Sequence to fold (475 residues):
Amino acid sequence: MSRRRKIAIAAGVLVVVAVVLGVLIKRFMDRNRAPMYADIQEHFKYGSIGTEKRLGVPAPLFDLFPVMFADLLPQDRPGQGYEKLGFLYEPGHKRPIGTTVREMPVEIVGLNCAACHTGTMRDKPGGERRLLLGAPANNFNIEGYFLFILAIAEDPRFTTERLLEGIERQDPDFGTLDRLIYRYVVLPQVEKAFKGFVTQYAWLKQHPPFGPGRVDTFNPYKVYHHLAMDDSIGTADFPALYNQKPRIGMHLHWDGNNDVVEERNISAAIGAGAEPSSLDIPQMMRIRDWTLTVQGPAFPADRIDHDRATRGEAIWRAQCADCHAFGGKKVGQVTPVGDVGTDAERERSFTAELADKQNTLGTGYPWKLSHFRKTGGYANAPLDRVWLRSPYLHNGSVPTLRALLFPDERPAQFYRAYDVYDFDNAGYVSNGPEAEKLGWKYDTTVRGNTNRGHRYGTELPADQKLDLIEYLKTL
Ligand code: HEC
Ligand code: HEC
Fold:
């Protein structure tokens, strides 16, 4: 074979190898896949809806953080690792409920609906913990999770070398190629993103803490849309997402700012870290379909005084049903803040300017949002399964239904995120030594946390209020 010929063949082989490599690299870089769980409840708990893109954390780092930076987790909370932030673990799962994994191209961990919409309950101290899919996430401290990430970003141990060392110690399968990809591509991106979070979320530290079970829903969107941050406190209690079908067309969210279920879901996913381009619409629709009919568990019938409940129903019809029963004249509409009289901060946090920006989300996509509006009040929401939504009101400032109806008993301070249930007064137990030890202290004197207003029914004779409480348990 002539020398020239040999060179030509060698060059040809090189080209083929380069093309094949190029194709493989491109295929790797374009990788965008997540496990699909056939069972909708599994998908709700662990399935991706596309939130990994903006706020996701590469899986080896997500797993490393609570070990390497254990000292940056809240030390006064029960449990181990992420449990200290109220994440819930199930046997047989490496990561907690509400976390997802997507390969894009490396494995990124994101949050899904279940993080904020899965609660727990115990019948008595030491009793078995019951998982409530779709109930408010009474334990989850999402602000704690963000603050943990911010603290890591500013920690001197947050260096490429230390992180690689930690990952390798933790995962013997982490190979040379992984190491190269992490050193030169992934970790530089993570460092840049985390440093960005430190400035984007600096406002969090100026605001009162959310504590478990709550999040400032809309102020983060001001960062997202590059609007100026104002001083409003938008902290809201996680609601339940049961039984959405009869809610179609209602103005919901605590301030009733959107009357389309799909738009509320999409905006939630974007709030949790999705970009319009990364949303997994088919999986979102599966979750939506599930929420249309999923029902929360009923209050234990043997713990209801049925004679009282029967009398209570008449009071409900007269005093509450217009605003809170399916079919009520005003249900799904908004009561002005001045009339309902509850804390005004959450309403104030959602501005007309922000509504306009929210209505630009998804421009160019078939699902583009268009129904956000400023309302000036709070929504008259249906109260089905209201027993599971303690603490009550949009800021979670009233621990039990009894305290809502007996305003003198609304405590100035109480403990949230203790999951033993008080079946007499309807709400989680919020005081006593164990609640103080395991719970998180909520202070109603803090801005955004006041427990005033909603005086409906409070003037009734005490006996009728007790009847009404028994009826509310049956909803
Ligand atoms: C970061 C926590 C978080 C995540 C993640 C989240 N939500 Fe929510 N969700 C909330 C909060 C807080 C509200 C109340 C918002 C407000 O009005 O301030 C809410 C409201 C809702 C409501 C309206 C309830 C009502 O009656 O007003 C529905 C339905 C809902 N979410 C479904 C979903 C779905 C579906 C997903 C996943 C695509 C999701 N949420 C993800 C926190 C979250
Ligand atoms: C004029 C309309 C209106 C009437 C009448 C009314 N409510 Fe409400 N209710 C509201 C609004 C608005 C909210 C939300 C206020 C907030 O969270 O700041 C609310 C919130 C609630 C909540 C808290 C729900 C949750 O998820 O935390 C309960 C419980 C409740 N109402 C019970 C009652 C009962 C019982 C009656 C009758 C005695 C009643 N309401 C009468 C408008 C009304």
